[in-house]
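About this split. The held-out portion is used to measure sequence recovery: a designer receives only the structure tokens and must propose an amino acid at every position. Recovery is the fraction of positions where the proposal matches the reference. Here is one held-out target exactly as it appears in the evaluation file.
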């Protein structure tokens, strides 16, 4: 499987590290915002091609699939371009920053039949997989999720502390993880409400947000998001079920009493990004729909679109 990766920033390198562990995968092309960065990352990971332009990779006959780790605002159009060029594509979360664009990507996938997957990593983290397996087995019914997504990002920087060329978004990016995960664990979302705090004078985005969700099963979710939190960073998930309580921190899991739960047996790796990439490659090879396909995650973007309308009004 010959891969081109576009967006060689902090998250792009996480994918490249994961792909190194998947048998039969070759990194062919690296695309980045500057030629210097693209060339440096290509050299580090043994890619024979680098460029500032995605279309250069799409024109190559030695590229089978593309992973997009580019700015949010480019995701939908680049996903369409990849499929128009006959390439399978994995789009880092979020798929789009509008409901209409998300629908357009699904329509193109259905038209082409190519694999199109979205990086909803929470579906793959061993901690969340463990809970999901218990739900599917009928051993746990989810009653409530309480989620905190906290960063300290009052300047436009990425996960490595470097300046960003684009602005992140609490609703379309960070809330997308939990909206999709809640539906994955509890069923289709039938009610959603949101409020947001003041708009940052320079970044032009809300720095704090609160979201309430209810699924068709009756389960509820409360999600708090902030770019103002000067403390422990990341996302913390509390699952409250009828038979157990769990607290998930990405790939780690404890019960409600903070006693560790061994999730090392859940999958072949403890790295959610690597597991996500393994699923993408396997789905292409096996000609099947991947977990996290654009069709499966589409309803998340319906909910985000509805919440955006609420906030705008």
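Reference sequence for scoring:
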């Amino acid at each position: 499987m010959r891969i081109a990766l576009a967006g060689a920033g902090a998250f792009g390198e996480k994918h490249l590290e994961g792909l190194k562990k998947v048998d039969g995968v070759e990194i062919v092309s690296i695309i980045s915002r500057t030629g210097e960065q693209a060339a440096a990352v290509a050299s580090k990971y043994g890619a024979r091609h680098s460029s500032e332009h995605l279309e250069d990779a799409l024109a190559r006959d030695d590229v089978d699939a593309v992973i997009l780790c580019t700015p949010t605002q480019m995701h939908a159009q680049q996903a369409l371009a990849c499929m128009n060029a006959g390439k399978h594509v994995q789009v880092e979360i979020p798929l789009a920053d509008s409901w209409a664009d998300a629908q357009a990507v699904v329509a193109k996938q259905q038209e082409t039949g190519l694999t199109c997957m979205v990086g909803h990593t929470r579906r793959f983290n061993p901690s969340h997989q463990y809970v999901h397996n218990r739900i599917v087995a009928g051993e746990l019914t989810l009653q409530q999720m309480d989620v905190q997504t906290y960063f300290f990002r009052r300047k436009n920087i990425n996960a490595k502390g470097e300046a960003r060329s684009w602005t992140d978004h609490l609703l379309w990016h960070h809330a997308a993880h939990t909206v999709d995960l809640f539906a994955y664990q509890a069923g289709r979302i039938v009610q959603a409400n949101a409020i947001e705090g003041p708009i940052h004078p320079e970044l032009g985005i809300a720095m704090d947000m609160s979201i309430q969700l209810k699924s068709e099963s009756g389960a509820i979710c409360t999600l708090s998001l902030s770019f103002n939190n000067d403390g422990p960073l990341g996302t913390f998930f509390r699952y409250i079920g009828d038979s157990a309580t769990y607290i998930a921190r990405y790939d780690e899991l404890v019960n409600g009493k903070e006693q560790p739960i061994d999730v090392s047996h859940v999958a072949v790796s403890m790295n959610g990004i690597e597991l996500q990439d393994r699923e993408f490659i396997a789905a292409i090879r096996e000609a099947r729909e991947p977990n996290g396909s654009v069709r499966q995650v589409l309803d998340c973007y319906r909910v985000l679109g509805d919440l955006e309308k609420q906030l705008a009004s």
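Annotator remark: The radius of gyration is 19 Å.
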